[in-house]
């Protein structure tokens, strides 16, 4: 127990101190919220990790100046609080630099932050030099578990390494905070009786200390969560120390930090906290974590009296046991108890060369030849690595469009894989953890159109239809968030709808959840596919589609993108092996790819998927890729697939034919090529299309522009079947018939036109295709 000093300040003055420090906490919360929103804005506009570091350091420098003034002019509790705040600033200042690590590398971020925190904790411990009284503190365990129950109810654990590092990180940060308290102890820890105002003031001061310690803690947007949870923890932390004493401050605070910081880090999916998902329509990711943070804050306030007035350790031991049982029940009941292991994408050095097969005249024979060459090469070159993984009991998935494997691996195994001679590179493959519930599909708010919308008429699609080109006989492969099968725009175009009923085998794949029939929760896939071939809103209404889910809650990775590309190229039956059971003659002619795989968020190195698109081009598959929405800065077009020469990349224009400010442009610098991109532009602003629940919605993005070109290719190939599989000639026609685009002042990027060959004109392209077929 603490050895109390019986002196205490006067009550009137204590309320003044309390109001002062509470006001400081509220001001800090406001400033913190503003700065964290600035960080999000910085990330959205492309400044990335460097921008985050700058924002964090600006806030810390401002705090240091303010706290130094407070420490100089303050007295008593005010001065002690300011000194603690000052001494805490070096931790977030050092942690800020981990923002330079790509967010897809969550384990590297966690380990880097743990290392920084350990160094800081050692430095503080050596500086304070107070004897440490070790001992188990059941009060911290019981109250910490109770306050952490929302994370167990809503979150899900990562791998065992993720959980261990997160809990250790929380404990280390808590230890460091305890050392700061031992150095400048609160009056509430030194006196048997302190006025209520002082106690409230010191709790507020400790809440601000928690805010400072968590300023840069965790990956992606995790610090934003602590902005909600940390302030309430100050009073709980203060209450816990009443039963410990100053020599036990560090161990007690380590227990407190383990639960207050460690549980959120352990049970929050870092891949679901990326900036883009903050604005997702799904009630998950940051949204669920925010609910858990608010719940943690409320429970911390509720259990504070327990820590203050219940002193029997047996009661707290029993409470800890009950809280642990409740937490396990929540996890197991939600089906999220099993750790979600990390995955990596292992690319082998030897990639197959199928370029010579592009000369095979027969289209189906060419596709089959490419498939057989790729699968045989993968089976041969992957053999030794597969045997080694089998011997280790490690699960993996082989691929052939890129000679690669997806492997379930934490960092130690990842380093071993990287050391093998046949391996070229190992990339992270972010994989979302399970949710405690199934999200409901999004719903649009627009009435159904009774005529083709402006974007379809702008590119001349009705004129092309009048020429007899409507996309008949062409299959468009859609890889996206999914497709609503029963939508009136799309239902009759499904290739699986036969005279004998609906057959999903060879026509649909969901590698994320294994769903056996088409569905779409987010709406992005339904919207983009309907623009390509919808009955009323589409460019090629007589084309057919097959589909695949490569985006789960708006996140993808290289393996899931490859899953879909392989299936759309050579579909296979349920439970079939893509390397043995694929049938390239049943695959799609045209791929629409309204997605990108950025290295920082989804792990794709610039050349990660290049062998896949090269093979597809050789096989005669036309690959359309949306340019991305990181514009208008030059070289903002930076992620696969859009950066590759083997795909046709599409930017976005509005109804006036002006380049949309969000549309990414080249020249491509991410792979060092300096390649001019995009290749074409098409409507991508205020696009009306299909949405789940048989609804309609308007949307902006290059995602909306790309499907216009996919539909246009279907029209060209239906108008002139001799063009099927002839990628070079099809691209030539699209480029030569595009309407010229005149760049406005400031729109040029180097020698390249920001709109490529110009604005898609499908009517002119179809006329050219028909004339060249005569």
TrEMBL record:
Matching CDD domains: Peptidases_S8_BacillopeptidaseF-like (cd07481)
The UniProt record lists the keyword Hydrolase: yes
InterPro entries noted in UniProt: Bacillopeptidase_F, Peptidase_S8/S53_dom, Peptidase_S8/S53_dom_sf, Peptidase_S8/S53_subtilisin, Peptidase_S8_Ser-AS, Peptidase_S8_subtilisin-rel
GO function term, MF aspect, one: serine-type endopeptidase activity
Residues forming the catalytic site: 480, 524, 703
Single GO BP term: proteolysis
Signal peptide (from-to): none
Transmembrane portions of the chain: 12-34, 54-73, 85-102, 108-128, 135-154, 160-182, 194-216, 222-241, 248-267, 287-310, 317-335
Domain Peptidase S8/S53: 471-739
Family of this protein: Belongs to the peptidase S8 family.
PANTHER family, per database record: CELL WALL-ASSOCIATED PROTEASE, SUBTILISIN-RELATED
Protein name as annotated: Peptidase S8
Organism: Chloroflexus islandicus
């Amino acid at each position: 127990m603490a050895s109390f000093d019986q002196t205490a300040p006067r009550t009137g003055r204590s309320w003044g101190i309390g109001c002062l420090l509470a006001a400081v906490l509220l001001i800090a919360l406001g400033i913190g919220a503003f700065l964290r929103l600035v960080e999000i804005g910085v990330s959205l506009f492309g400044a990335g990790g460097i921008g985050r570091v700058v924002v964090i350091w600006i806030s810390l420098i401002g705090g240091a100046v303010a706290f130094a003034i407070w420490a100089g002019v303050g007295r008593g509790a005010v001065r002690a609080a300011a000194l603690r705040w000052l001494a805490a600033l070096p931790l977030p200042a050092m942690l800020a630099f981990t923002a330079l690590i790509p967010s897809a590398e969550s384990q590297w971020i966690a380990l880097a932050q743990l290392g920084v925190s350990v160094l800081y904790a050692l430095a503080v411990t050596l500086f304070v030099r107070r004897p440490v009284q070790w001992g188990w503190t059941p009060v911290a365990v019981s109250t910490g578990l109770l306050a952490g129950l929302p994370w167990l109810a809503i979150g899900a654990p990562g791998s065992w390494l993720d959980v261990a590092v997160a809990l250790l990180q929380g404990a280390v940060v808590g230890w460091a905070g305890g050392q700061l308290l031992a150095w400048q102890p609160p009056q509430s820890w030194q006196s048997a009786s302190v006025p209520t105002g002082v106690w409230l003031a010191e709790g507020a001061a400790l809440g601000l200390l928690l805010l400072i310690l968590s300023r840069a803690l965790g990956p992606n947007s995790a610090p934003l969560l602590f902005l909600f949870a940390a302030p309430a923890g100050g009073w709980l932390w203060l209450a816990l120390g009443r039963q410990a004493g100053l020599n036990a401050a560090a161990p007690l605070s380590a227990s407190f930090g383990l639960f207050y910081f460690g549980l959120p880090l352990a049970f929050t999916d870092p891949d679901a906290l990326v900036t883009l998902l903050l604005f997702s329509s799904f009630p998950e990711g940051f949204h669920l974590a925010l609910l858990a943070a608010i719940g943690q804050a409320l429970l911390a306030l509720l259990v504070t009296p327990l820590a203050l007035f219940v002193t029997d350790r047996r009661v707290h031991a029993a409470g800890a046991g009950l809280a642990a049982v409740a937490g396990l029940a929540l996890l197991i009941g939600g089906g999220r108890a099993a750790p979600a292991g990390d995955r990596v994408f292992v690319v082998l050095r030897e990639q197959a060369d199928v370029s010579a097969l592009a000369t095979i005249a027969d289209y189906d024979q060419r596709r089959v030849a490419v498939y057989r060459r790729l699968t045989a090469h993968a089976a041969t070159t992957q053999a030794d690595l597969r045997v080694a993984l089998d011997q280790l009991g490690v699960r993996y998935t082989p691929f052939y469009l890129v000679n690669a494997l997806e492997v379930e691996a934490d960092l130690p195994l990842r380093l071993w894989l990287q050391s093998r001679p046949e391996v070229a590179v190992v990339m992270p493959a972010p994989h979302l953890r399970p949710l405690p519930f199934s999200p409901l599909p999004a719903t649009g708010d627009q009435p159904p159109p009774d005529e083709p919308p402006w974007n379809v008429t702008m590119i001349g699609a009705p004129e092309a239809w009048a020429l007899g080109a409507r996309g008949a006989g062409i299959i468009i492969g859609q890889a996206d968030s999914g497709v609503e099968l029963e939508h009136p725009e799309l239902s009759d175009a499904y290739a699986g709808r036969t005279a004998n009923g609906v057959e999903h085998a060879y026509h649909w794949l969901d590698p994320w959840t294994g769903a056996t029939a088409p569905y779409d929760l987010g709406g992005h896939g339904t919207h983009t596919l309907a623009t390509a071939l919808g009955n009323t809103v589409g460019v090629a209404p007589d084309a057919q589609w097959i589909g695949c889910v490569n985006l789960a809650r708006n996140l993808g990775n290289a393996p899931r993108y490859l899953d879909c590309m392989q299936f759309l190229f050579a579909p296979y039956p349920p439970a079939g092996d893509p390397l043995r059971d694929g049938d390239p003659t049943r695959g799609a002619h045209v791929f629409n790819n309204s997605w990108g795989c950025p290295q920082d968020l989804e792990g794709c190195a610039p050349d990660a998927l290049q062998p896949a698109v090269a093979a597809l081009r050789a096989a005669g598959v036309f690959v359309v890729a949306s340019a991305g929405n990181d514009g208008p800065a030059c070289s903002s077009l930076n992620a696969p697939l859009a950066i590759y020469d083997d795909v046709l990349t599409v930017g976005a224009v509005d109804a006036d034919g002006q380049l949309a400010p969000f549309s990414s442009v080249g020249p491509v610098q991410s792979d060092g090529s300096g390649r001019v991109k995009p290749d074409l532009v098409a409507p991508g602003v205020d696009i009306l299309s299909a949405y789940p629940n048989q609804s309609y919605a308007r949307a902006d993005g290059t995602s909306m522009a790309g499907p216009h070109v996919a539909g246009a290719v279907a029209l060209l190939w239906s108008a002139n079947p001799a063009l099927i599989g002839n990628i070079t000639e099809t691209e030539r026609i699209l480029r030569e018939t595009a309407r010229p685009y005149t760049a406005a002042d400031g729109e040029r990027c180097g020698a390249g036109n920001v709109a490529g060959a110009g604005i898609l004109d499908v009517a002119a392209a179809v006329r050219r295709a028909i004339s060249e077929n005569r």
